[in-house]
Amino acid sequence: MRMNWLAGSLVFVMAATAAVAQDTRTVTEPVIPPPCITLHADRVGVAEKLDAQYEKTTDTQLIQTALDYCRPGKAVELATGANGANAFLSGSITLEEGAVLVIDKGVTLFGSRDPRDYDPDPLDKKTKLLCGTMSDVSRVYVTEKDASGGKKKMPDPPQGRTCRSLLYVTGKNAAVMGDGTLDGRGGAQVIGHDYTWWQMARRAEPQQLAYFSGRLITGTHADGLVLYRIHLNNAPNCHVCINNTNGLTAWGVHLLTPTVRGTDTRNTDGIDPSASTNVTVTHSWIDNGDDNIAIKANVQHMSVLDNHFYSGHGMSIGSEVSGDAYIVVDGLTEDHTTSGIRVKSNAVKGGPVHDLTFRNICMRDVKVPIAISPFYNNGTIEGFTDPGVVGPHIPDYKAVHLEKITSLSPGDVLIAGKDADHITEISLSSVQIKGLKPEQVHAQFAKVTIGPGMVNFTPTGEGVTVDKVVDKQHLVPTHGCPASSFPAMR
């Protein structure tokens, strides 16, 4: 049955999957609407590169005018042109209510290298433009040791106008669709500077300096936003970041950063929702340089279903956490991610969060298969002791459920609460970390329920209590990871 994608509904082909979804919407596979305007490329891109001769002007105004002209229910289509032309070049574009951008297979919309193409509009001439720059302000967390030495808080960030994203969604029922590519060119040199977007991020890392780079897609009050089959490559920063949105669907998204393997990419998160509800990410492939998915504070009713993660920091909740979550992750393979299941925060960014369910997850070559941590301190993976970050918002994790989790290779496990007043409550059922050694299990201040279903480790430590549920019908592993669980990146 053909569905009207504007209704914001999507199809789940597997009834069992739909039954466990936390997204309260009825969700069906999106349908690409017919074009209102077809724009034909007049530039030629090769892989992630665009020759200098094609960078003298941009297509920003051309695409923006077309999007503003077309009515809801019709799309602006980016198509190939004559003589092998397959590329468009743009600065920041706004998608208002009902706007649909379709990028055809074989076509790439490249992001400009010029930071001025991402400056907010209108501009106050007195306002400092920060896009493409680093500051001398460190964002290092204040620890108990720092506080005893007189340092009380993190400094305020620099004041000025930062970067808009390549695609900036401000209206309801917008969409980015098609089998083409949106490429942010994070590895290309920033005009006016001696670094690429990613090199700037890495230079800022040792002192945790504030720096300013653009995201690929952002949405604010973007209810009903749909990302369908699109390829997202080489974001300078986060690929997809939404907030204050009711209804995001990412279906069949292919996210690959970097496209030149071995390139250093920092802070290139995959999909990050915050302060939003009714979010579904499904049938997608995510391979990037930071969290594959990072669910931020005040996200409720989110489903992460039948996805594949490759390089990246894993399936994360945090570092900002708080609120009634109701999040389910069901049907996930993680192949060479640094972490697997990761719930991370600290006393600056934490708070109460509950009802997190992870089930039917296969991992291999994952350094930290499980990390339920109040110890976050800007690390790629979790430390196993409290760094003593000072703040009033202590993480408090409740109703965390892990079921049918298998890691084919050994790695560390961390299950921790901050203190006796903030006990992490977690259940484990059919959880197997193969080759796990006792010294790789780290725990404190946790109430752990084990079973039904075999679990091949028992957390111990200060403030840890364990309740084992005996069910003779489930004393053998009920979940495995055959080779077919790990398909190649599409």
Q: Topology, please?
A:
Blueprint: H1 15-20, E1 35-40, E2 45-46, E3 49-50, H2 60-69, E4 75-79, E5 87-90, E6 93-95, E7 100-103, E8 108-111, E9 134-138, H3 144-148, E10 167-169, E11 175-177, E12 181-183, H4 197-204, E13 209-211, E14 217-220, E15 225-228, E16 231-233, E17 240-243, E18 246-251, E19 254-256, E20 271-274, E21 277-282, E22 285-287, E23 293-295, E24 300-309, E25 315-317, E26 323-335, E27 339-344, E28 352-364, E29 368-373, E30 396-407, E31 413-416, E32 424-433, E33 441-444, E34 446-450, E35 464-468
Parallel strand pairs: 1-4, 4-7, 5-8, 6-10, 7-11, 8-12, 10-14, 11-15, 12-16, 14-17, 15-18, 16-19, 17-20, 18-21, 19-22, 21-24, 22-24, 23-25, 24-26, 25-27, 26-28, 27-29, 28-30, 29-31, 30-32, 31-33, 32-34, 34-35
Antiparallel strand pairs: 2-3, 9-13
So what's the overall shape? Answer: globular
CATH topology: Pectate Lyase C-like
Q: How many discrete structural domains?
A: 1
The radius of gyration over CA amounts to 23 Å
Per DSSP E runs of 2 or more residues, the count of β-strands stands at: 35
Main β-sheet description? 20 strands, parallel
Mean pLDDT: 92
Residue share in helices?
under 10%
Distance, first to last CA: 27 Å
CATH architecture: 3 Solenoid
Which structural class best describes the helix and strand composition?
mainly beta
Strand content: 35-45%
- Provide a count of the helices: 4
Q: Could you state the CATH homologous superfamily?
A: Single-stranded right-handed beta-helix, Pectin lyase-like
CATH class: Mainly Beta
List the uncertain runs. Answer: 1-19
